Protein backbone atom coordinates (compact mmCIF):
# COMPACT_ATOMS: atom_id res chain seq x y z
CA UNK A 1 0.00 0.00 0.00
CA UNK A 2 1.28 3.45 -0.94
CA UNK A 3 1.73 6.04 1.84
CA UNK A 4 -0.66 8.24 -0.16
CA UNK A 5 -3.47 5.74 0.45
CA UNK A 6 -3.42 6.84 4.10
CA UNK A 7 -3.80 10.48 3.06
CA UNK A 8 -7.00 10.33 1.03
CA UNK A 9 -5.81 9.15 -2.37
CA UNK A 10 -8.75 8.10 -4.56
CA UNK A 11 -9.56 7.70 -8.24
CA UNK A 12 -10.44 11.38 -8.61
CA UNK A 13 -6.90 12.48 -7.76
CA UNK A 14 -5.34 9.73 -9.85
CA UNK A 15 -7.39 10.91 -12.84
CA UNK A 16 -6.38 14.55 -12.28
CA UNK A 17 -2.75 13.52 -11.99
CA UNK A 18 -2.90 11.53 -15.23
CA UNK A 19 -3.87 14.73 -17.08
CA UNK A 20 -0.47 16.21 -16.20
CA UNK A 21 3.11 15.35 -17.07
CA UNK A 22 4.25 11.86 -16.14
CA UNK A 23 7.71 13.29 -15.35
CA UNK A 24 6.41 14.55 -12.00
CA UNK A 25 5.29 12.74 -8.87
CA UNK A 26 1.99 13.10 -7.01
CA UNK A 27 2.00 14.37 -3.43
CA UNK A 28 -0.32 15.75 -0.76
CA UNK A 29 0.59 18.77 1.33
CA UNK A 30 0.47 17.99 5.05
CA UNK A 31 1.93 21.21 6.48
CA UNK A 32 2.93 24.64 5.13
CA UNK A 33 5.61 26.84 6.68
CA UNK A 34 6.88 30.14 5.15
CA UNK A 35 7.62 29.25 1.55
CA UNK A 36 8.28 25.59 2.29
CA UNK A 37 5.97 22.67 2.89
CA UNK A 38 5.96 19.06 3.97
CA UNK A 39 4.27 16.59 1.64
CA UNK A 40 3.64 12.87 1.38
CA UNK A 41 4.51 10.98 -1.81
CA UNK A 42 4.29 7.31 -2.72
CA UNK A 43 7.90 7.11 -1.51
CA UNK A 44 7.26 8.78 1.83
CA UNK A 45 7.57 12.31 3.28
CA UNK A 46 9.50 15.11 1.57
CA UNK A 47 10.30 18.75 2.36
CA UNK A 48 9.78 21.06 -0.62
CA UNK A 49 9.79 24.71 -1.60
CA UNK A 50 6.79 26.50 -3.10
CA UNK A 51 4.15 29.10 -2.37
CA UNK A 52 0.45 29.62 -2.99
CA UNK A 53 -0.59 26.29 -1.55
CA UNK A 54 -2.51 25.16 1.51
CA UNK A 55 -2.53 22.16 3.79
CA UNK A 56 -4.63 19.49 2.09
CA UNK A 57 -3.67 20.46 -1.47
CA UNK A 58 -2.71 17.77 -3.96
CA UNK A 59 0.37 18.81 -5.94
CA UNK A 60 2.90 17.51 -8.43
CA UNK A 61 6.61 17.68 -7.68
CA UNK A 62 9.85 17.57 -9.62
CA UNK A 63 12.41 16.40 -7.09
CA UNK A 64 11.88 18.83 -4.18
CA UNK A 65 10.23 21.59 -6.21
CA UNK A 66 6.55 22.40 -6.64
CA UNK A 67 5.42 22.05 -10.26
CA UNK A 68 1.61 22.33 -10.18
CA UNK A 69 -1.36 22.30 -7.82
CA UNK A 70 -4.28 20.07 -8.78
CA UNK A 71 -7.68 21.84 -8.91
CA UNK A 72 -9.19 21.89 -5.45
CA UNK A 73 -12.32 19.82 -4.92
CA UNK A 74 -13.31 21.87 -1.85
CA UNK A 75 -11.76 24.71 0.15
CA UNK A 76 -12.55 26.24 3.54
CA UNK A 77 -12.19 29.97 2.94
CA UNK A 78 -12.88 32.86 5.28
CA UNK A 79 -13.13 36.48 4.24
CA UNK A 80 -10.84 39.05 5.82
CA UNK A 81 -12.24 40.92 8.78
CA UNK A 82 -10.87 44.25 7.55
CA UNK A 83 -11.57 46.42 4.53
CA UNK A 84 -9.53 44.33 2.08
CA UNK A 85 -10.97 41.74 -0.30
CA UNK A 86 -8.45 39.07 0.65
CA UNK A 87 -9.50 35.58 1.68
CA UNK A 88 -7.67 32.96 3.71
CA UNK A 89 -7.81 29.28 2.80
CA UNK A 90 -7.95 27.29 6.02
CA UNK A 91 -7.90 23.86 4.43
CA UNK A 92 -8.14 22.31 0.97
CA UNK A 93 -9.90 19.20 -0.31
CA UNK A 94 -11.81 18.60 2.91
CA UNK A 95 -14.82 16.27 2.89
CA UNK A 96 -16.21 16.79 6.42
CA UNK A 97 -15.98 19.92 8.57
CA UNK A 98 -16.43 19.34 12.31
CA UNK A 99 -17.51 22.51 14.12
CA UNK A 100 -16.51 22.25 17.78
CA UNK A 101 -18.73 23.79 20.47
CA UNK A 102 -17.42 23.70 24.05
CA UNK A 103 -19.99 22.63 26.60
CA UNK A 104 -18.23 24.42 29.45
CA UNK A 105 -18.50 27.93 27.95
CA UNK A 106 -21.45 30.21 27.21
CA UNK A 107 -23.26 29.03 24.09
CA UNK A 108 -23.15 31.55 21.24
CA UNK A 109 -25.65 30.31 18.65
CA UNK A 110 -24.78 33.14 16.26
CA UNK A 111 -21.17 32.01 16.18
CA UNK A 112 -22.24 28.40 15.61
CA UNK A 113 -24.34 29.54 12.64
CA UNK A 114 -21.36 31.47 11.28
CA UNK A 115 -19.09 28.41 11.44
CA UNK A 116 -21.74 26.22 9.82
CA UNK A 117 -22.13 28.76 7.00
CA UNK A 118 -18.36 28.65 6.52
CA UNK A 119 -18.50 24.86 6.36
CA UNK A 120 -21.35 24.72 3.83
CA UNK A 121 -19.55 27.31 1.70
CA UNK A 122 -16.49 25.09 1.47
CA UNK A 123 -18.36 22.36 -0.37
CA UNK A 124 -17.83 19.91 2.49
CA UNK A 125 -20.44 18.43 4.83
CA UNK A 126 -20.67 20.05 8.31
CA UNK A 127 -20.99 18.13 11.56
CA UNK A 128 -21.23 19.74 15.01
CA UNK A 129 -19.34 18.20 17.92
CA UNK A 130 -20.25 19.38 21.42
CA UNK A 131 -17.01 18.86 23.34
CA UNK A 132 -16.38 18.45 27.09
CA UNK A 133 -19.90 17.05 27.48
CA UNK A 134 -19.10 15.65 30.92
CA UNK A 135 -18.07 19.05 32.31
CA UNK A 136 -20.68 21.42 30.87
CA UNK A 137 -24.36 22.02 30.38
CA UNK A 138 -24.83 22.65 26.63
CA UNK A 139 -27.44 20.21 25.32
CA UNK A 140 -27.74 18.93 21.76
CA UNK A 141 -31.28 20.37 21.54
CA UNK A 142 -29.96 23.90 22.07
CA UNK A 143 -27.33 23.59 19.35
CA UNK A 144 -29.79 22.04 16.91
CA UNK A 145 -31.60 25.39 16.75
CA UNK A 146 -28.54 26.79 14.97
CA UNK A 147 -27.88 23.66 12.91
CA UNK A 148 -31.00 22.35 11.13
CA UNK A 149 -30.19 19.37 8.97
CA UNK A 150 -26.72 19.03 10.50
CA UNK A 151 -25.65 16.08 12.66
CA UNK A 152 -24.94 17.16 16.26
CA UNK A 153 -22.97 14.82 18.56
CA UNK A 154 -22.05 15.24 22.23
CA UNK A 155 -18.53 14.03 22.97
CA UNK A 156 -16.11 13.69 25.87
CA UNK A 157 -12.47 13.16 25.02
CA UNK A 158 -11.72 12.26 28.64
CA UNK A 159 -14.12 9.33 28.77
CA UNK A 160 -14.28 8.67 25.01
CA UNK A 161 -18.03 9.21 25.24
CA UNK A 162 -19.64 9.87 21.86
CA UNK A 163 -16.38 9.48 19.90
CA UNK A 164 -17.56 6.35 18.06
CA UNK A 165 -20.90 8.02 17.28
CA UNK A 166 -19.11 11.07 15.87
CA UNK A 167 -16.69 8.95 13.83
CA UNK A 168 -19.62 7.21 12.14
CA UNK A 169 -20.61 10.54 10.58
CA UNK A 170 -17.14 11.43 9.29
CA UNK A 171 -15.91 10.88 5.75
CA UNK A 172 -12.64 11.36 3.91
CA UNK A 173 -10.54 14.32 5.02
CA UNK A 174 -11.95 15.80 8.23
CA UNK A 175 -11.22 19.38 9.35
CA UNK A 176 -11.76 20.56 12.91
CA UNK A 177 -12.72 24.25 13.17
CA UNK A 178 -13.84 26.39 16.08
CA UNK A 179 -12.68 29.10 18.49
CA UNK A 180 -9.71 28.66 20.81
CA UNK A 181 -10.62 26.61 23.85
CA UNK A 182 -13.42 24.72 22.13
CA UNK A 183 -11.57 21.41 22.42
CA UNK A 184 -10.46 20.90 18.81
CA UNK A 185 -7.02 19.47 19.56
CA UNK A 186 -8.25 17.34 22.46
CA UNK A 187 -11.02 15.94 20.25
CA UNK A 188 -8.48 15.37 17.48
CA UNK A 189 -6.28 13.37 19.84
CA UNK A 190 -9.29 11.28 20.88
CA UNK A 191 -10.05 10.51 17.23
CA UNK A 192 -6.40 9.65 16.60
CA UNK A 193 -6.13 7.52 19.72
CA UNK A 194 -3.07 9.33 21.07
CA UNK A 195 -1.50 12.67 22.02
CA UNK A 196 -0.59 14.00 18.57
CA UNK A 197 -1.80 17.60 18.82
CA UNK A 198 -0.73 19.96 21.60
CA UNK A 199 -3.51 20.91 24.02
CA UNK A 200 -3.99 23.51 26.73
CA UNK A 201 -6.49 24.50 29.39
CA UNK A 202 -8.87 27.45 29.07
CA UNK A 203 -8.28 30.56 31.19
CA UNK A 204 -10.35 30.49 34.36
CA UNK A 205 -10.94 34.27 34.23
CA UNK A 206 -12.87 34.35 30.97
CA UNK A 207 -13.09 30.69 29.84
CA UNK A 208 -11.21 31.57 26.64
CA UNK A 209 -8.70 29.13 25.25
CA UNK A 210 -5.03 29.45 24.51
CA UNK A 211 -3.75 29.00 20.95
CA UNK A 212 -2.16 25.58 21.35
CA UNK A 213 -2.43 24.79 17.62
CA UNK A 214 -0.25 27.21 15.67
CA UNK A 215 -0.35 25.60 12.24
CA UNK A 216 -2.53 23.34 10.15
CA UNK A 217 -1.42 19.73 9.98
CA UNK A 218 -2.79 16.69 8.15
CA UNK A 219 -2.62 13.38 10.05
CA UNK A 220 -4.15 9.97 9.13
CA UNK A 221 -6.56 8.42 11.64
CA UNK A 222 -5.40 4.81 12.11
CA UNK A 223 -7.53 1.98 10.72
CA UNK A 224 -10.35 4.27 9.61
CA UNK A 225 -9.48 5.58 6.15
CA UNK A 226 -9.95 9.10 7.52
CA UNK A 227 -7.46 11.97 7.47
CA UNK A 228 -7.61 14.65 10.17
CA UNK A 229 -6.83 18.36 9.77
CA UNK A 230 -6.50 20.35 12.99
CA UNK A 231 -6.62 24.14 12.65
CA UNK A 232 -5.69 27.04 14.94
CA UNK A 233 -8.53 28.69 16.84
CA UNK A 234 -10.32 31.43 14.90
CA UNK A 235 -10.97 34.80 16.52
CA UNK A 236 -13.08 35.98 13.58
CA UNK A 237 -14.91 34.21 10.78
CA UNK A 238 -15.88 36.31 7.79
CA UNK A 239 -18.18 34.57 5.33
CA UNK A 240 -17.73 34.83 1.60
CA UNK A 241 -18.81 32.44 -1.09
CA UNK A 242 -22.39 32.48 -2.21
CA UNK A 243 -25.92 32.89 -0.97
CA UNK A 244 -26.21 29.12 -1.29
CA UNK A 245 -23.96 28.67 1.77
CA UNK A 246 -26.19 30.94 3.86
CA UNK A 247 -29.30 29.21 2.50
CA UNK A 248 -27.87 25.83 3.51
CA UNK A 249 -26.96 27.02 7.00
CA UNK A 250 -30.44 28.55 7.40
CA UNK A 251 -32.38 25.86 5.56
CA UNK A 252 -35.40 26.35 7.84
CA UNK A 253 -35.70 30.01 6.80
CA UNK A 254 -35.00 29.13 3.18
CA UNK A 255 -37.88 26.63 3.19
CA UNK A 256 -40.23 29.17 4.76
CA UNK A 257 -39.18 31.83 2.22
CA UNK A 258 -40.30 29.56 -0.60
CA UNK A 259 -43.90 29.95 0.60
CA UNK A 260 -43.88 33.75 0.94
CA UNK A 261 -46.48 35.60 -1.14
CA UNK A 262 -43.82 37.49 -3.09
CA UNK A 263 -40.82 35.82 -4.70
CA UNK A 264 -38.54 38.74 -3.82
CA UNK A 265 -39.74 39.00 -0.22
CA UNK A 266 -37.10 40.56 2.03
CA UNK A 267 -38.84 39.30 5.19
CA UNK A 268 -39.06 42.79 6.64
CA UNK A 269 -42.67 44.06 6.52
CA UNK A 270 -44.12 42.45 3.40
CA UNK A 271 -47.68 41.07 3.60
CA UNK A 272 -47.92 37.31 3.28
CA UNK A 273 -44.36 36.75 4.56
CA UNK A 274 -44.13 33.17 5.82
CA UNK A 275 -40.85 33.91 7.65
CA UNK A 276 -42.35 36.74 9.73
CA UNK A 277 -45.42 34.60 10.37
CA UNK A 278 -43.16 31.88 11.79
CA UNK A 279 -41.55 34.44 14.10
CA UNK A 280 -44.99 35.62 15.29
CA UNK A 281 -46.01 32.02 15.91
CA UNK A 282 -42.87 31.32 17.96
CA UNK A 283 -41.60 28.79 15.43
CA UNK A 284 -38.56 30.93 14.51
CA UNK A 285 -36.60 33.22 16.82
CA UNK A 286 -35.92 36.88 16.11
CA UNK A 287 -32.29 36.17 16.94
CA UNK A 288 -31.92 33.57 14.19
CA UNK A 289 -33.70 35.72 11.60
CA UNK A 290 -31.49 38.66 12.53
CA UNK A 291 -28.31 36.64 12.12
CA UNK A 292 -29.58 35.32 8.79
CA UNK A 293 -29.99 38.88 7.53
CA UNK A 294 -26.58 39.83 8.91
CA UNK A 295 -24.74 37.00 7.17
CA UNK A 296 -26.52 37.69 3.88
CA UNK A 297 -25.40 41.35 4.05
CA UNK A 298 -21.87 40.35 5.01
CA UNK A 299 -21.66 37.82 2.20
CA UNK A 300 -22.92 40.35 -0.34
CA UNK A 301 -20.40 42.96 0.86
CA UNK A 302 -17.47 40.52 0.80
CA UNK A 303 -18.45 39.31 -2.67
CA UNK A 304 -18.67 42.89 -3.98
CA UNK A 305 -15.18 43.62 -2.65
CA UNK A 306 -13.87 40.50 -4.37
CA UNK A 307 -15.52 41.46 -7.66
CA UNK A 308 -14.03 44.96 -7.42
CA UNK A 309 -10.57 43.49 -6.93
CA UNK A 310 -11.06 41.18 -9.92
CA UNK A 311 -12.00 44.17 -12.08
CA UNK A 312 -8.90 46.06 -10.92
CA UNK A 313 -6.66 43.10 -11.70
CA UNK A 314 -8.22 42.77 -15.15
CA UNK A 315 -7.66 46.49 -15.81
CA UNK A 316 -4.04 46.21 -14.64
CA UNK A 317 -3.52 43.25 -16.98
CA UNK A 318 -5.01 45.22 -19.88
CA UNK A 319 -2.71 48.19 -19.18
CA UNK A 320 0.34 45.93 -19.10
CA UNK A 321 -0.62 44.38 -22.45
CA UNK A 322 -1.19 47.84 -23.94
CA UNK A 323 2.19 49.04 -22.65
CA UNK A 324 3.94 45.99 -24.15
CA UNK A 325 2.26 46.59 -27.51
CA UNK A 326 3.27 50.28 -27.53
CA UNK A 327 6.86 49.31 -26.80
CA UNK A 328 6.77 46.76 -29.59
CA UNK A 329 5.34 49.29 -32.07
CA UNK A 330 8.00 51.82 -31.07
CA UNK A 331 10.73 49.23 -31.59
CA UNK A 332 9.33 48.48 -35.04
CA UNK A 333 9.36 52.19 -35.91
CA UNK A 334 5.58 52.33 -36.14
CA UNK A 335 2.82 54.16 -34.25
CA UNK A 336 -0.64 53.01 -33.38
What does this structure look like?
With 336 residues, the protein is an alpha/beta fold. It has nine helices and 13 strands. It has helices at residues 11-18, 109-122, 140-144, 163-167, 184-192, 243-249, 251-257, 274-280, 286-331; strands at residues 25-33, 36-41, 44-49, 58-62, 65-69, 75-79, 87-92, 96-102, 125-131, 151-154, 173-177, 217-221, 226-230. Helices cover 32% and strands 22% of the residues. It has a six-stranded mixed β-sheet with strand order 10-9-8-11-13-12. Mean pLDDT is 85; it is low at 202-211.
Which keywords apply here?
alpha/beta, 336 residues, five-stranded antiparallel β-sheet, single chain, six-stranded mixed β-sheet
Quick overview:
With 336 residues, the protein is α/β, with parallel strands linked by helices.
Radius of gyration: 23 Å
Shape: flat
Q: What is the helix fraction of residues, given as a range?
A: 25-40%
Q: How many strands appear in the DSSP assignment? A: 13
Overall pLDDT, averaged? 85
Alpha-beta classification: alpha/beta
- What is the string of SSEs from the N terminus onward? HEEEEEEEEHEHEHEHEEHHHH
How do the strands line up in the largest sheet? 10-9-8-11-13-12
Strand content: 15-25%
Helix count equals: 9
* Main sheet specs: 6 strands, mixed
Distance between the termini: 63 Å
Low-confidence stretches: 202-211
